């Protein structure tokens, strides 16, 4: 029997961090340019913020060229796209943005420079009706900008991936099976992470003297899913006092 004590809020936040980072770690690497790959016939996909780039790379795999505009770690609320972004956007077949007022300068640049036939897909605006917009102290309603960070919830990340899958199938039906299979893998991993987060939050609300921690098994399985090794190793339930 092991003794484990941690403040419930910190424990929940630790798992939340693991969830968000897990979604990024399980992503495929995206291309930074694609200039040398134009002749291979693959679609060019341009994305904005790093989480959307990550989710897109998961769904697309190697069937298209994915280029992210906003560098990872950059404040997307204040990011101003450099002049070089105009050329990248002008070559895109599909441009995925979050919307919800997150990256308006980049979206405006995309509108000005996109080629004929290119689509701009606002994922967040697509999945979240205005009646469900979230406002808080960081995103006051009077400013008209809702909280746009939906992807921090794994269930929304799955919904984002579904929008990307459907757009890619529409634009590239020859690779439909690949996009559907990649989405299914992403859905499985994200669902495992979501289950772990929910379990941890429920555990945080329980009395400190609870004797069983089934969340240990749930978290273990989520880690396995993120490593693409479901069922490997032991995920025995532990106890705490």
Uncertain segments: 1-11, 24-37, 236-241
Number of spatially distinct domains = 2
CATH class of the largest domain: Alpha Beta
CATH superfamily of the largest domain: Nitrogenase molybdenum iron protein domain
**What is the straight-line distance between the termini?**
9 Å
The largest sheet has its strands arranged as 2-1-3-4
The gist of it:
The protein is of the alpha/beta class and 241 residues long. It has two domains: 8-18 and 193-239, no CATH class; 28-191, Nitrogenase molybdenum iron protein domain (Rossmann fold, 3-Layer(aba) Sandwich). 46% of the residues lie in helices and 9% in strands.
Please describe what this structure looks like.
The chain is an alpha/beta fold. The protein has two domains: 8-18 and 193-239, no CATH class; 28-191, Nitrogenase molybdenum iron protein domain (Rossmann fold, 3-Layer(aba) Sandwich). The protein contains eight helices and six strands. A four-stranded parallel β-sheet has the order 2-1-3-4, with helices on both faces. Strand 1 (43-47), helix 2 (50-60) and strand 2 form a beta-alpha-beta unit. Helix 3 (84-90) packs across helix 4 (104-113), helix 6 runs antiparallel to helix 7 (176-204) and helix 7 (176-204) runs antiparallel to helix 8 (215-226). The longest helix has 29 residues, at 176-204. The relative contact order is 0.15. Mean pLDDT is 78; it is low at 1-11, 24-37 and 236-241.
Key descriptive features of the protein:
241 residues, alpha/beta, Rossmann fold, four-stranded parallel beta sheet, two-stranded antiparallel ribbon, 6 strands, 9% strand, globular, disordered N terminus
